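Co-fold these.
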Amino acid sequence: MKSRLFLALALCFSLNLRADDTNAPVAPYILTPPAPATPRINGPNVFGVRPGSPFLFTIPATGERPIKFSAKNLPRGLKLDSKTGRITGSLKTRGEFTVTLRAKNAPGAAEKKFRIVCGDQISLTPPMGWNSWNCFAGAVSEARIKSAADAMVNSGLINHGWTYINVDDFWQNHRDSTDPTLHGEFRDANGFIMPNSRFPDMKGLADYIHGLGLKAGLYSSPGPWTCGGCTGSWQHEQQDAATYAKWGFDYLKYDWCSYGEIASGQITNTTGIPLWGKTATNNEGAIYPYRLMGKYLREQDRDIVFSLCQYGMADVWKWGGSVGGNCWRTTGDIVDLWGKTEFDWQGSLSSIGFGQDKAAPYSKPGNWNDPDMLVVGEVGWGKMHPSRLTPDEQYTHISLWCLLSAPLLIGCDMTKIDDFTLNLLSNDEVLAIDQDALGKSATCVLTNGDVRVFKKQLEDGGHALGFFNLGSATVNLDFNQLSPLGFSGKQHVRDLWRQKNLADVDAANGVLPLTIPSHGVVFYKLTAANQ
Ligand code: GAL
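Predicted complex below.
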């Protein structure tokens, strides 16, 4: 007991930790400075495509319009629309191509090196976009998806790299819903899946989304039914993969749910299918349905991001990449709460966000751990309300997801996006941490009282550091532990949310004075001064 007290005192002393008790509710506050009128090219530095697949990359750029885009050394097969900044076409040969992207407008010009890698792997940085579930749940429709896509453009979020517009559950017909819009044939006479009456033209929808320079995503289950009770892909996997490709979709979220009945042998016509459950001696039965769909998606003539949704079962991060997965959920469903949730299949921001270290070593370009979608803005799974997370919890949410190299899927109603939420989603220096081409995930490198320090190695040799405060009072901290965290020499320090340089610090004896609000974060990038 005595020695524990001593240890706590020693740590407080070494970190010079002071907590104050003021914990009044905080109104939303904006840290990100507005983008300048001069052009800035945002988004990832690298993009992967397979040979022969249709290429679509919209150069994300802020700055006064009109902007004239150009590109030097664009490989043969690709062309750039100088007005929209969209690069399209296809590449025949494998290889790496370094392109210089340029954006010019009346007040100025910008340039950026961009690597196109034509090979087997896609999704070389975590996917960024929007998904319908956290706001609309079962009340999704073609009109709502189109409005979300329009809002992605009109809000300017497309200029920060947000790309996918993903339809989640309920585009198919339902097994027993009382809602007549969900009644209809599950499949046609030839076994092709039938969308419900709210989605009269799936190809038209994907074309509409592509027409805005965005990409389109869809949802299914390897079981007979999706989690919401709509038609799943069981025994139609190959046909469904071909249908999604024919319609022009670029992303598939594949959700376990009723496959549990098959994996546990409750459905009889499963000859040759490995079972999974309490009696299984290996994970083959959990892997099997994903391997199957992964293979069929891979056979299509377009690149389809494969997102595994099975809540982290069977340590999916260890095998998700081997079945063609680009990202995999590591947890149950997130809700917009910091702490305790209503149901045990749900996770909160803190339980999910701070529990990801186990999967971190498996994060790499093309393979991303997915701690579930974002719960900022108006969310509510059909019963809309502003996120119940405090402003500081929302800063934590975005900072942590970027440190974890998580897929970033906005879950709010895009048509009702407010300035605070927009600011959270449009800080290019913060998003660059998520999109860093090295693809590492941060881990927790230091725990002290309520403070957790997360560190992420970056491609340019720098590191992102997140200082999180899990406690209920503000923490004031003179942080002097850079040397034990592996830093040496003089370091430039940049406050990412404020996009501001702070004083350089010497890792050996320097101090970072930090004020971390309750459940909030201080998010810095450190770069060696001699670099
Ligand atoms: C859940 C999944 C959610 C959503 C929902 C649709 O299993 O985790 O993100 O897709 O199914 O029914």
